[in-house]
Each structure stands twice: as structure tokens, then as C-alpha cells.
Amino acid sequence: MSTDINKPDEGYLANLIREELHTYPFHRPMATRFPPEPNGYLHIGSAYAIMTNAEIARSYGGRFHLRFDDTNPLKEDAAYAEAILEDIKWLGFDPGSHVYYGSDYSEMIFKAAMTLIKKEKAYVCDLSPDELAAGRGTLTEPGVDSPYRNRSIEENVALFQEMKEGRYKTASKVLRARIDMSSPNMNMRDPVLYRIIHADHYRTGAAWCIYPMYDFAHPIQDAIEGITYSLCSLEFKDHRPLYEWVLAELGYEEPPRQREFGRVGVTGVVTSKRYLRQLVEERHVDGWDDPRLPTLRGLRRRGYTPASIRSFIEEIGSIRSYSTVDISLLDQCLRQDLKESTISVMAVLRPLKIVITNYPEDTEEMLRVENNASNVELGSREVPFSRTIYIEQDDFMEDPVPGYHRLQPGGEVRLKGAYFIRCQKVVKDPESGDILEVHCTYDPETKSGTGFAGRKVKGTIHWVSAAHAVAGEVRLYDRLLRDENIPKEDSVDWSKWLNPNSLIQLYAAQFEPIAGKAAPGDRLQFFRHGYFVADDGPSTNEGPVFNRIVPLKDSWNKK
């Protein structure tokens, strides 16, 4: 045995596995798998399952498999499979050569079904889908035996073979396990093992018209690949007896073991694949990679790093039941990841023009600003300064409220990395009364870095030289949902649940020159505004587009 069972305490699931291996070890290497359906995109909950499986395998020196559960040709597509593999690699859990497809096992699963038929453990049933559902019974009443339950082995073999050959219409027959229609576990009441679907498969084409159900294919695929632990979310706990029944009836020695872990929900987002599909198809969001969605594609476009997502999952740890985690924890993990590695730049999101009237016209100078106040090793850069600059509209108040320490008539503030300026005049539009620009004077003796003393101000604000500014767009994101407790309905009236301020687009932002050189995916910290990433999606603006990943401090619950 190659597994190390002398592991330290690593959480509920790891401890459970370690205890089991002390008593019932496997005589083969540890192997786990993640079995996504290629009918959609991965999300933050998928990341939890991926990391759980991959880390358990890694901790025992074993293998992590990616196996596509592609047993439903009506919903699956090669593009989804490619995207899933790409997302898993981006997350940091490359399965390498261990990428498998359930459809590759079609012949073996078919033979396994024939084995059950010949053992009188499976039969072909002609009941319609509605009749099947009605005959299952309820949680308090047993099911009813199918009138086709006692067909002979020979008849079942012939019918199942004819199903494979395409002689019957879709849904006209199914293959069912013969177990116990009075079982308290509904999953054991003669579950369907195979159904007829006349549709081309994205990998096998028209080679098959019968497809196994997940509960039947899953344990067989695990056994074929030598999986030791099938780690599933808690919703599959009631399916475990069927998993074990299939493996036992097929006679697998040292069969894989299914064990469950809790599911994770995140406040402010929706992880239901059905709801995600509705949001995308009804155009409430801008595709599967919309930065407001918890899909890995959306999180990546939003600017979250793989390391921050892994850290988030590590903080959650191994859980036994369903748990809802505040999204602020994910944001905090990202801030910790970016704090000392990201360059801080000046960006003015809602510009107000400032004219420094005593600064020489047609003059500019280069001022030195640190790249990261938390990490001196990132060095510094030169930033251009000129007579006309932009500051944030919020950094000037004509009638300041008590405690306001930024620019105000007659008041003085420090420009970050530059000089002190004092407000002398406010220029307004004579018709609307809107402020057009503010005239200030500067004190040349207060240049940053020159060792001036004796002058202090309470406010320091950021700025961008108007002559050198790069214009662009900024997208500010908030949580997508007003409330994540969405009723379980087939059709949701999303107008009642969506936050109308989940996306605010600012088209007149002004950035210092270095921001204009950012490539898609580059992350920057904008002074006082938070962490941003250069977007690679379409824009109505010719300049760069930046998505805000997170503010500098948690603001989710500050309404």
C-alpha cells in the first residue's frame, strides 16, 4: 500500500479517510476524481469540490482525475468540456494525462448492464416517465412493482439489445435495477439505469442511442479507473447505497468508496446551474464570464487570482453540512494575495479639473512616487505633473460638512507625491451652476521628497496630470442579488431579485500613463478605490477598461 495513513488532523473529510485506511486500506494508490457534466461552466462551488478531491489525492501521493460525465447528448457540448479543463488548469489543479470521458466507457457499461440482467438484477420496463414517477411511491408509502418486473432473463436480454440497436422510440423503454420497491430510500426503488435518447453525442455521434444514468455509470467508471475515494457533495449521500449496490452486484474487489462533504454557498451570488443559465440566456448578465457571476470564468474576468480562491477554500476547510460563507472572506483573501505584489497607481474615476494658476504655463516635471507602500522592493516610478490636473469630484466640497478634510474654498490639501495646493476660486457654468473647474495655487516649497518641515495638512488626495492622462472606462461591481434566498421555482422573476446597482460604468475616468500600458489581466491598485484588473472584453470606449475586483475595505454590507 502506498498511502500514508499517519496524517495530522486536516479536517473532517481527511480525518474520516485516514481512520478508514487504518482499518481497511487499499492495495492500490490513492485516486480521486472530479466528474463535471460538460453542459455548463464551473463556479465557486465547483472549485470547492475540485480542490477537495485534488488535495486529498495529493496528501496521499495519489492521482487526481478529471472525468467528464457526458452521458446526456441533449445538453452537452465540446466547448463546455474545453472550458472546464481550461478553468481547472487555471485554478491550479492540472490533471495532466488523467483526463477521461464517461462516453469512452460506453461498451463496458453496457456489458455491466447485461451482467445485471443475467443475474436477474435488472429488467426492461415499458412504463412511461409519468407512470414511473407515480409508481415510486412517497416517503411514507412504498412504491408499486412494475408490471414488467418479472420478465424473463432471455426477454430482457433481447429487449435491451434491441434498445441498443435503436428499434424503440425515445423514452419508450428503460432499463431498471431490480432492488426493493418498499425501500425507505427512494433511490433504491428499482432506479432507472439506462434510457433511450435518439440524439447525436458530441463525441460518439450516432453510435449510441441508449445512455446510462449517472448513478449507474458513476460507480462503474470509478472502478474502471481505479478510483479509491469518490468524494461527492452532501446531496449524493442518499445515493451512496445504490453506488455500493452496483459495485457489489458487479463483483468488484476493493471497490471505490463514496464519501460526502458539505456544500458551500456564498452570500450575494447564485450557484444553481439552472439559475445561472436563466440569467445568461435571459440576458440579465453579459454571458457566462460576466464579472458579477460566481463562475470561474466570471471570477477570472473580474480579476480574482487562483491563489485567492484556493486560500478562500482553505479558510472554509472541510465541512459536514451545507454552509453559507460571506463573500467578504473571498475578497479578504484576494487583498492579502495582492497587497504586496500589486503596483499602486493614480486614477481619477469622476474627474474635476483643477487649474494651478501660479504654476508656470507650458511646464511639466516628473515626480517620484512609490509603487507599493507595503513593499519597498517594488521600487518607485516617475509621474508627470503639470499646471492642469484632475482630482476626484468627491475630493472637493464647496460647502464642506463638519470633519471634511479635503479640498474646500480657502482650504489646503497635499497632492500625493507632489505639492500642497490651496483653493482660491470656483468656476461654474452660469446657466446650470455646475462646477466646471477649480482654481488653486501651489506652494513650491512643499514638494514631496525635498525634506520640507513645519507644514502640515489633514488631507492628502490623488490626482492625474490632464496633459498626460489616459482616458478610459471603469466598471464598479456590487453583489448581483438583493437577497440570495431565491424561491425554488422553475421560472424566477429576476427583476425582484437583481441589484440594480450591481454594475456602474464610468466612461470618463482618467489614469496616469502607466495604467494605459496595462495588458488584459494585469492587476493594479488604484489609490483609495481598490484593486482593478484590465478587461479584455468589448467596450464603447477607445481607452483601457478596468474592472474593480474589490474595494480596499469590505463594503458588501455597508449600504
From TrEMBL:
Coiled-coil residue windows: none
Protein name: Glutamine--tRNA ligase
Cross-referenced Pfam families: tRNA-synt_1c (PF00749), tRNA-synt_1c_C (PF03950), tRNA-synt_1c_C2 (PF20974)
Keyword vocabulary terms for this entry: Aminoacyl-tRNA synthetase, ATP-binding, Cytoplasm, Ligase, Nucleotide-binding, Protein biosynthesis
Homology family: Belongs to the class-I aminoacyl-tRNA synthetase family.
The Glutamyl/glutaminyl-tRNA synthetase class Ib catalytic domain, residue ranges: 31-339
A biological process from GO: glutaminyl-tRNA aminoacylation
Organism: Paenibacillus agaridevorans
tRNA synthetases class I (E and Q) anti-codon binding domain boundaries: 460-535
EC number: 6.1.1.18
Domain Glutamyl/glutaminyl-tRNA synthetase class Ib anti-codon binding residues, every copy: 345-443
